[in-house]
Amino acid sequence: MLRSLATVLLAAAAPAARARATTLLNASSFDGFVGGHDVTVVFFFVPWCGHSRELLPTYERAADQVRAALEASESARSCGFAKLDASEDEQIAARYGIEGYPTLLLLHTPRPSALGGAVGAPAPREFRGERTTAAIAAWALNQLEPRLPVVRSVAEARALLHAPPGAGVGGPVVAAAIALIPPGHAPALLSAVRLAAAELNSIPWVHCPSADAADIGRELAHGEGGDPLALPALVVLRAADGGAAVLPLGPWDGPESGWEVPQSGGFAAPLYAQSGASGDGAASAGVPSGAAHRLGAHLAEWADAHALPFLMPYTASSAEMLFGTRADFYALLIHAGPTLTSPVGQRATGSDGADALPAAIVRALREAADGGLRGSFAFATVAAADFPEIAEYVGLIPAPTAAADGAPGASTATGAPVGWPALPALAVLQPSMSLKWAFALGAEGGTAGGEAGATAGGAPSAGMRLANPAQLNSLLAQIRHGALAPSLRSAPPLSPPPQPVAGRVTEIVGSSFEAVVLQPSWHVLVYVYSPWCGHCLRFNGTLGEIAAELQPIESLVIVALDGTANELPGLPVGAYPSLFLYAKGRKDEPVEFTGARSRTAVTHFVLAELGEDESVRLARSAEADWRQTDGAAERRSAQHAAPSKVEL
Fold it and tell me: Which residues form the Thioredoxin domain (predicted)?
């Protein structure tokens, strides 16, 4: 009998004298190695990355532990651990969309099906847990053979929330998922839950097959009151507020061709069959053939979306929990009171912290979450008095009289922070794109979407809009679908408005960025500088020479922007000076210049990116002329000016 992999893993953690269980791959060996294992973990790195060098020994120890665990348990499954230098094999990294280093990616190999053909493999999965040997090893083993322990009581289920760190989830337990599936229900449904457990390994997953599972589910979800749950169902218990979320899983009686996985956030309807035949004549399973992977992914998505309370108070300890979710956007309700001592639940209870917040705004956010945005969005409250840096970041400006009454962020006798009159406010962050949207939440009659020159408190708020709380649902939906421009800090508009022309450098500000840089008929070279940067001061003259040299390209303009006074939409400015080329037809893919800040290097970069149209050929001709005349003279002058060894 095979021993539990988790038990064997603990024994395998002891150091042993064995060769490292990792293999260095390249483009020619990659596919063969991956195809030779059921599961392959690949460590994508670049040699010059300090984080890559730091994580590599941890990764190799995890590989040793997993190999030892599989050998000791006599498992028939195989797990390969590989390393790939992305600087040498860029095409492999590009195939999987690897952008940062190091990245741990797990790949499944399709398996033969008993009915013929192959069982489709789930999508590649990136490791996002704690970067420790135990967490990486537990993650790999759980992906290889997802474990679904059994619980048979309310006490056993609730005890999951108090498991010690590292108990299979790589960190503190924020929630637990309990699949209430008594015997007689679809076997394929349990398989989908196992796949969900592998997909979302940051929380523990268990199976409750007890005959009284409906009563267990009722007590988990509603306490002593309420009716027994309709089964099968998935219950997510939350550690932050002790609450629970329930997802019905059946029944489903339609033909296979009519089955659909709900869209993100839209899990209001039951999902899966209790019985019934699949459309291809296979044995009754309740879950259509080939759908288990899709259902597993959606169960993981739903569980992740409900692992935290509806409105989580932002604190130093909850920040990691909040931003550890897989949400794309974070909606932060910035308020004037002190930090809440408890989360706001999905339902108003009168004692969950909601009383300290404006009722209309909480109601609007609840409607947005219930309307399908939960999962894509995570919601939290932020006390401006305790976290003034967040208020400043989203555009709240301290009142001019704050110094007389107290420092910005200090509290008055009423508890309202001095210096932040534009409250309450809502900030939406999209960390993956470095974007934010900020709204000063006015009265019910406020104008949604309009720029806020001043809030109800009378203080201007840079880059903020004035929004009606009743329209937050619509605004958040627009943000999710990319239909609402982000809030950006901008220097005051220039007068007259900038009119870039070929051959010279034109100054712009953040508010004119879109109108100028995204103009479809222009190639635009964007120069981002800092007024106090010495390298920028030296490069300014060079940039003017570059503009003059490239003047024959009439569709190319060069603009300069102060990066310290303006924010740029999704532009990763890591240092000054920075140069980005927005080519016609490729405005959504700006190319950063990473070479030497010299006239020749920048000119070659622009010409190489723009291609072979007539204007580019003309510019290359001009460059050739310069090399034959001025360039030659410049080189001769430099030679004459160079000191000899005798002079040294």
Answer: 8-146, 485-611
